[in-house]
């Protein structure tokens, strides 16, 4: 799975829903400086911490990043099983 973190985060956007993951995703959507082509935790966390706008969202970022990693692992397992079945 080659999806970047930003693409994953955008799956949580919703103009009506009011939970922390959605609020965070909506905030990221409007931040054109966010490193949209990165998925490295340290790079993303540094950007969020240094921007100052995301201080209240750091726990939310950690939660969303964990979900991102889990989704990536699931996709990799499916790909590996698929490749094994083809062999």
TrEMBL record:
It holds the Pfam family YozE_SAM_like. SUPFAM superfamilies: YozE-like. Residues 5-70 form the YozE SAM-like domain. Gene3D superfamilies: YozE SAM-like (1.10.150.260). This is YozE family protein. It comes from Jeotgalibaca ciconiae. InterPro entries: YozE_SAM-like, YozE_SAM-like_sf.
């Amino acid at each position: 799975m080659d999806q970047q973190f930003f693409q994953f985060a955008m799956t949580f956007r919703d103009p009506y829903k009011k939970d922390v993951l959605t609020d965070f995703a909506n905030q990221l959507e409007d931040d054109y400086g966010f490193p949209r082509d990165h998925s490295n935790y340290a790079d993303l966390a540094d950007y969020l911490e240094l921007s100052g706008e995301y201080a209240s969202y750091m726990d939310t970022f950690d939660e969303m990043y964990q979900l991102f990693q889990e989704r990536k692992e699931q996709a990799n397992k499916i790909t590996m099983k698929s490749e094994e079945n083809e062999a």
